[in-house]
Amino acid sequence: MTLASDRNRTPPWGILATLAWLVLAFAISAVVTVGFFAAVPVERLGAGSGSYDGVLIAIGSLASIPVQVAVLVVAAQLRQWPPANYLALNFPRRGEIVFAAVCMLALVLAFNLLLYVSGHDIVAPFQVEAYRTAKDAGWLLALLAAIVVVAPIGEEIAFRGFLYRGLALPGRELHAIVVIALAWALLHIQYDWLGMVQIFAIGLILGWFRWASGSTTLTIVMHVLVNFEAMIETAIKVEYLS
Hints:
Layout (H helix, E strand, L loop, with lengths): L3 H4 L7 H25 L2 H4 L8 H25 L4 H4 L7 H24 L7 H12 L3 H28 L5 H14 L6 H21 L2 H26 L1
Helix pairs in contact: 2-4, 2-8, 4-7, 4-8, 6-10, 6-11, 7-8, 7-11, 8-9, 8-11, 9-10, 10-11
């Protein structure tokens, strides 16, 4: 959906420029994160050396995502758009929030059932590792903040905000939704194939609500709910079922 006020502005960045800005944002945020870990040894942070150490995940997210968002804000400003408009950070209607939450809950429950009957773990092993290592190091609250709040904000601004703005040409919104959902799913290599199918399906739902509502804020709320539900499941498994 394109707002009337948006149509009167300078056109968004083109497809290639949008991709270039997104890659630049990821690259700069990665450099900042690597620089932080180089300056502060992980041993001083209480982190281990595992692939999914919760402390490293928390600090990496908290250090990289604000930088990533800042780069995309600059990109929007250089296109002479207010960043909030370019990234569609307008507040959705209450009815949209309720409907979106119900749809997302139904999708998550359906996939949980599918995972259960197919013999897959509902809670992926990497989630358990991240939770346990963060808890043991006293970083559990930081991990929760990173996973439930910071990561959804960063990913939605990047994918359903900035990338969607550049790819969703008039009449090609469906193509953009599918391509963005696929790219987003492929980045989640920590999941098995069924988990990635679930991520892709969630991405399609998020993309549809981004188009229907014209609001990335709504998809942020939806993403927060998904990650919060996943963390609750992880906590139940670690604290009561292990």
